[in-house]
């Protein structure tokens, strides 16, 4: 019986989604399976090329800055050119820039190309999320975003393990393999994915032309979500920047950190789908409050960790918050976005995570150096509490339809109803 129930749960989790979604899901998985560069960039620059840790940090920051810049540009492209052209340009440019990064040797050239890689690799995110919102029915979007997030983490887990073996043979091979797999994603998109941007009437086109970045910035509720997303992202980023430093200062080895953080990937792969089935039709505002507080206090508990087992336990707590937050928050962003402005809205939302990736290393370094790791974990708990309170205030005023689904309050010029399922690609 348990096996039968598990099969039924899996079938219900993946059923009812359009074929185009699965091609997009496949491209996401392939792309993440080949994501080697981000994993071994620091090792490549310090061990293979002989540069300092400071220079490696600068390159990492430029890589993140490229993502910040491209978030807004790609959002505009997604709305103006379409989802498919933006994806093709982003994936082809990423393949070319990653391959180029493997051959450049001058430090200035490396930094410049790293910025380009960050910009091009991040440019596909608004288009992917907008296309997913176009082709999936509103009631299935949380499940679809959850499945996509699951693919991202599965691909990252596999690529992280493979990166170590590839780096022992040749760093250049890693760059070329990632470039090849990214190019394969572009070919898959070209062959299998039609444009999903809904057809527009003359009136809708005129309204869409008025949905500029200024419209996004004036959308108070949405910008509130972006600001709270930034706070939550600051917390989650500490798993990659604050946690290894704190564990190192406490006498733990890199292998210990690897074991602790591996719990994050394993739990996401194991629990993302069943947890999503549990939360799929629950109040998103309440879920965002719970996940924000859980993330903050999950990292806050790290202040009391004195053994590897306790560190792994804290990872379990904030990973559960991540599993709840990721699909729920993405679904809320789509719900708050006008159909013909989804690219710009998704670009602004993506930028909140890119900016957090820039700020988090500085924040963790300053706090740990001046006051100690315990203050960093206490700050995470405070930020999580503030974010949870913010979501509670922001979401409780959301208007409700007869069927119980929230309706966003959009600026007048941004109001365009979601298309019916048969109108999407």
Keywords:
18 helices, single chain, mainly alpha, globular, 425 residues
Characterise this structure.
With 425 residues, the chain is an all-alpha fold. It is 78% helix and 0% strand. It has helices spanning 2-14, 19-33, 37-48, 53-80, 83-101, 107-122, 124-135, 141-169, 171-192, 202-209, 213-218, 220-237, 242-249, 254-279, 284-300, 308-336, 342-371, 373-396. α3 (37-48) packs parallel to α8 (141-169), α8 (141-169) crosses α16 (308-336) and α12 (220-237) runs antiparallel to α18. The model is unreliable at 400-425 (pLDDT under 50). It contains 18 helices and no strands. The chain is globular and about 60 Å long. It has 2 domains: 18-196, MFS general substrate transporter like domains (Growth Hormone, Chain: A), CATH 1.20.1250; 214-416, Growth Hormone, Chain: A (Up-down Bundle).
């Amino acid at each position: 019986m348990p096996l039968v129930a598990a099969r039924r749960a899996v079938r219900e989790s993946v059923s009812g989604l359009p074929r185009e979604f699965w091609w997009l899901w496949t491209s996401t998985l392939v792309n993440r399976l080949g994501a080697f560069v981000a994993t071994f960039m620091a090792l490549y620059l310090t061990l293979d090329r002989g540069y300092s840790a400071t220079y490696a940090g600068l390159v990492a920051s430029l890589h993140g800055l490229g993502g910040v810049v491209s978030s807004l540009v790609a959002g505009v492209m997604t709305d103006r050119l379409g989802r498919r052209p933006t994806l093709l340009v982003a994936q082809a440019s990423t393949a070319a820039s990653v391959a180029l990064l493997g051959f450049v040797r001058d430090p200035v050239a490396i930094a410049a190309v790293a910025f380009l890689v960050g910009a091009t690799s991040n440019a596909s995110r608004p288009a992917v999320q907008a296309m997913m919102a176009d082709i999936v029915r509103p009631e299935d979007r949380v499940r679809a975003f959850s499945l996509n997030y699951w693919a991202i983490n599965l691909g990252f887990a596999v690529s992280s393990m493979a990166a170590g073996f590839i780096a022992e043979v040749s760093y250049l091979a890693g760059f070329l393999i990632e470039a090849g797999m990214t190019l394969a994603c572009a070919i898959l998109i070209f062959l299998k994915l039609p444009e999903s941007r809904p057809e527009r009437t003359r009136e809708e086109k005129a309204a869409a032309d008025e949905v500029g970045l200024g419209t996004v910035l004036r959308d108070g509720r949405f910008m509130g979500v972006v600001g709270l997303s930034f706070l939550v992202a600051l917390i989650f980023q500490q798993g990659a920047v604050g946690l290894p430093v704190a564990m190192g200062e406490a006498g733990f080895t890199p292998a210990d950190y690897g074991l602790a953080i591996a719990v994050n990937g394993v739990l996401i792969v194991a629990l993302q789908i069943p947890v999503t089935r549990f939360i799929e039709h629950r109040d998103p505002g309440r879920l965002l409050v719970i996940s924000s507080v859980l993330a903050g206090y999950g990292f806050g508990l790290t202040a009391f960790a004195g053994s590897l087992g306790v560190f792994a336990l804290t990872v379990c707590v904030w990973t559960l918050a991540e599993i709840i937050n990721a699909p729920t928050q993405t679904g809320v962003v789509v719900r708050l976005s006008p159909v013909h402005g989804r690219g710009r809205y998704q670009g602004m939302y993506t930028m909140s995570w890119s900016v957090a990736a820039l700020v988090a290393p500085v924040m963790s370094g300053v706090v740990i150096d001046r006051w100690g790791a315990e203050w960093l974990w206490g700050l995470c708990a405070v930020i999580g509490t503030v974010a949870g309170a913010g979501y509670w205030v922001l979401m409780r005023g959301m208007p409700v339809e007869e069927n119980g689904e929230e309706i966003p309050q959009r600026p007048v010029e941004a109001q365009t109803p979601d298309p019916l399922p048969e109108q999407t690609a």
